[in-house]
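Reading group handout, session on sequence-to-structure problems. Before we discuss, look at one worked example. The prompt was deliberately terse, the way you'd type it at a terminal:

> structure Large ribosomal subunit protein uL29

The input record follows.
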Amino acid sequence: MKSKEILGYDIKEISNQTVEQLIEKKKELQGKLNDLQQELLKRKVEARMGTLKNTASIRNLRKDIARILTLLSIINKEIENKKKESKK
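And the output record:
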């Protein structure tokens, strides 16, 4: 069975990484998230001004933002689990 991927990140791969690797991925994803949020704001302004030609791009950006937030949630849970395991 093929494992699930979100934005090129394999979910099973995430659970096999160390805490340091997960923190690095988290920082990378937060940077992408900020970039996408700024781009979304820019596109919304363009849409209001009537200069946006591809209105579907707003929907696509919102979906990408949701995917990144999902990944961040998974990574945060995995970091918590690994920290709990290391304390035992």
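Points for discussion. First: The mean pLDDT is 90. Second: The beta strands are 5-6, 9-10.
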